[in-house]
Automatic annotation (TrEMBL):
Gene3D superfamilies: 3.30.465.10. This is FAD-binding PCMH-type domain-containing protein. Residues 121-308 form the FAD-binding PCMH-type domain. GO terms for molecular function: FAD binding; oxidoreductase activity. It holds the Pfam family BBE. Belongs to the oxygen-dependent FAD-linked oxidoreductase family. It comes from Tolypocladium ophioglossoides (strain CBS 100239) (Snaketongue truffleclub). PROSITE patterns: FAD_PCMH (PS51387). Residues 1-20 form the signal peptide. Keywords: Oxidoreductase, Signal.
Length: 605
């Protein structure tokens, strides 16, 4: 109860919350907000706390000890030291990974570590309360509580979302970070399958709070691997897989969501249900690519495991002398003209394109660097067959400082372990992304690589040397997969998914932030979209202000997704920014827009 009093002080002192956020005109429904008669009393919050074994926390932004009115120098030092550690941010209810989503600049509420201590700490988009759940019953209690009082609910796993989906203003958060169970089986039998049906083979059931590093490490101990991303603290069961989930193993075995066999979910009614090929098939379809935070709270997911096979790894860096931009972009064009062949040979990996000069062995050069994995491969001659033509081509423009190596890896799990040294990713900054998936058809057109490179060059110039990351994570099994799911269908045609970031800082005025966002949406991303208007963007690594996001993220699957959403969650309990059904709500997910609301008529006031 002490904590409850503290949060009241925060609310009273910092936020003029009794003023309406959005116009609550007729026909618009708003969720219950603090200081309204509908807001749960202290006793009600206390009862929720008891029902989840004392795991309810009142939440302040993580930097609060560095700001008025909470100044505490030693606590500020301690939190500042952790502020770029993604494992710490994942565990703190008052943090997400990208601090622009903690702030709410439209309300002038920020609490940045690096801004003046005299700017009072504003709650921003940070949830007011967090249910730090450690079992399914806790999730059920929190979901029912949010439904009963019509609260804004935010589901946070790692908090990595680049589109601000894991936090929401004035919300109750469900933090899944403590749900760390990992259970392997040799023969997985989905709930509801008849005893005569064949099992689905080796699999692992992953608790909602398990991160990728923990999961890979547990699998490696059994000489197993699985399709997951390349980062330490992304959640394995949350937004990652529900958004599709790309992986360096994708070309070999498909998207992460293609390998999901079952989800266990708390639905909008607070029921615990399985979703698989035999039960709740619509939900199963939607959870594989439909996006996190939208169809229920996933308690665990079961995915296939595979033997940790050998692989061939190619790492490369191609250098162009600083200043010779035309040579750099020609090299980039030639590089892209080989990606289809590399993908077709089983290559999967990442590359970085940046005309920003970098120091290599004491000389300033512009680099295109990265690596490709060829899974379950031990023959380097097969790999040379596609890599040698690439190096021969790019060498026309590459100079001193260039390198490429072809190595056999005895076990992919050892390589992943090396690639994920340490326990955390470096986060804590301000960033939004622009991205687009580029198809096989486009890259095989004679002018495709050139047009793509011209677009990258032009984006880069417009923003003062932006860098790009190319993800060659589709093709192969992703292209061939017969899985029918909500996954954006354009993934099946993709060869490379290209992402770039733009940022601002803690002192950038709101108007300037808006300019940066507008330029990203209307100018920079448009240059990529214009190349192939019928392709799309990956919903987990896309522009937070994506235009026509429904088509970009889901294409023709959107209609069915929206219908499933209406069926499973008619009241909109689970709303995620730029998620399915979010267009019926304002950006904060607090009030509906433009729609008559059934709930309005029967609202408890
Ligand atoms: C450093 C870094 C590396 C990345 N690498 C990859 C990569 O290799 N491959 C790739 O595909 N993507 C990658 N991503 C993108 C990543 O997939 C997204 O950031 C994704 O949203 C992370 O999911 P999360 O659950 O960890 O994050 P969160 O931000 O906690 O959640 C994301 C969304 O999922 C929802 N959610 C979380 N848990 C649950 C749950 N249990 N039930 C229902 N909804 C839930 C949240 O409400 C939110 O809407 C990377 C991102 C970063 C920052
Ligand atoms: C919930 O209960 C625990 C244990 O009694 C307590 O430490 C915590 O402060 C309570 N949370 C709130 C928000 O009051
Ligand atoms: C906080 O850190 C600063 C600089 O690192 C140091 O000078 C100061 O003494 C620290 N304060 C406390 C209370 O630990
Ligand atoms: C935002 O808050 C700061 C700190 O309280 C204040 O100085 C500033 O005037 C406010 N800006 C606006 C636009 O309200
Ligand atoms: C994993 O592989 C190694 C090397 O091939 C072997 O020594 C070890 O016994 C295997 N471990 C398991 C659990 O199968
Ligand atoms: C690896 O390749 C061999 C030979 O092509 C094949 O038999 C085996 O099934 C593959 N292993 C996996 C796990 O895909
Ligand atoms: C840039 O590189 C190309 C290819 O290596 C070369 O032909 C050209 O002379 C270089 N231009 C300058 C200005 O160095
Ligand atoms: C950098 O220099 C070292 C030592 O001279 C050399 O071994 C290495 O290959 C060089 N690396 C590149 C990328 O040129
Ligand atoms: C922050 O951004 C503003 C522009 O919005 C710029 O003037 C300022 O120099 C930047 N500050 C830092 C520390 O980069």
């Amino acid at each position: 109860m002490v904590a409850l009093c503290k949060i009241s002080i925060v609310l009273g002192a910092l936020a003029p919350l009794s003023q309406g956020l959005a116009t609550e005109s007729q026909g618009h429904r708003c969720r219950c907000r603090p200081h309204r008669p509908c807001w749960p009393s202290h006793d009600k919050w206390h009862a929720l706390n008891s029902s989840i074994d004392g795991n309810l926390a009142a939440v302040l932004p993580v930097a609060h000890a560095c700001k008025e009115p909470f100044l505490d120098a030693s606590a500020c030092n301690a939190s500042t030291a952790k502020s770029t550690d993604s494992a710490w941010r994942a565990a703190q209810p008052g943090a997400v990974q990208w601090t622009n989503w903690e702030a709410w600049p439209e309300r002038n509420q920020t609490c940045y570590f690096d801004s003046s201590k005299n700017i009072p700490c504003g709650q921003g988009r940070v949830s007011l309360f967090s249910a730090l759940v450690d079992k399914a019953e806790h999730i059920q209690a929190a979901v029912r509580f949010a439904a009963t009082y019509d609260l804004r609910l935010a589901i946070k796993n790692s908090g990595h979302c680049f589109l601000g989906r894991s936090t929401a203003p004035e919300s109750l958060q469900i933090s899944t970070n403590k749900m760390k169970s990992i259970a392997f089986t040799d023969q997985f039998r989905p709930a509801g399958a008849s005893p005569r049906q064949l099992g689905k083979g080796p699999a692992v059931t992953i608790g909602a709070g398990v991160n990728l590093k923990e999961l890979y490490a547990a699998a490696a101990k059994l000489n197993l691997t699985l399709v997951a991303g390349l980062a330490h603290t992304l959640g394995a069961a949350g937004g990652y897989i529900q958004g599709g989930g790309h992986s360096p193993l994708g070309n070999w075995k498909g998207m992460a969501s293609d390998n999901a066999l079952e989800f266990t979910v708390v639905n909008a009614k607070g029921e615990l249900v399985p979703a698989n090929d035999y039960q709740n098939q619509d939900l199963f379809w939607a959870l594989r690519g439909g996006g996190g935070g939208t169809f229920g709270v996933v308690v665990s997911v079961t995915v296939r495991t595979f033997p940790s096979v050998p692989a061939v790894f190619v790492d490369f860096g191609f250098a162009v002398p600083q200043g010779n931009l035309s040579a750099y972009w020609d090299l980039t064009r030639d590089f892209h003209s080989h990606l289809v062949a590399i993908s077709d040979a089983g290559g999967c990996g990442y590359y970085s394109v940046s005309p920003q000069p970098q120091d290599t062995n004491g000389t300033e050069v512009m680099l295109l660097y990265g690596g490709f994995l060829f899974l379950n491969e031990t023959q380097t001659d097969k790999v040379h067959k596609v890599i040698d033509p690439l190096t021969a081509d790019v060498r026309r423009n590459a100079g001193p400082g260039s390198f490429w190596n072809v190595n056999i890896l005895p076990q992919i799990s050892e390589w992943i372990d090396m690639a994920l040294k340490g326990d955390a990713d470096t986060t804590g900054g301000i960033v939004i992304l622009g991205s687009r998936m580029i198809s096989r058809d486009f890259l095989t057109k004679s002018d495709g690589p050139k047009r793509l490179t011209d677009a990258l060059n032009s984006i880069s110039e417009s923003a003062g040397a932006v860098g790009f990351t190319g993800h060659v994570v589709a093709g192969g099994a992703v292209a061939k997969s017969a899985v029918d799911s909500a996954l954006n269908p354009v993934w099946r045609r993709t060869i490379t998914h290209i992402v770039f970031g733009v940022d601002w800082n803690s002192t950038t005025p709101l108007a300037e932030q808006k300019e940066i966002q507008d330029r990203l949406a209307n100018v920079q991303v448009e240059k990529l979209r214009a190349l192939e208007p019928d392709m799309g963007a990956y919903l987990n690594e896309a522009n937070a202000y994506e235009k026509d996001f429904q088509t970009s993220f889901w294409g023709d699957n959107y209609k069915r997704l929206y219908e499933i959403k209406q069926k499973l969650d008619p009241e909109g309990l689970f709303i995620a920014r730029k998620g399915v059904g979010s267009e019926d709500w304002d950006d904060a997910g607090l009030c509906t827009v433009g729609k008559e609301s059934r709930r309005m008529l029967q609202a408890p006031s």
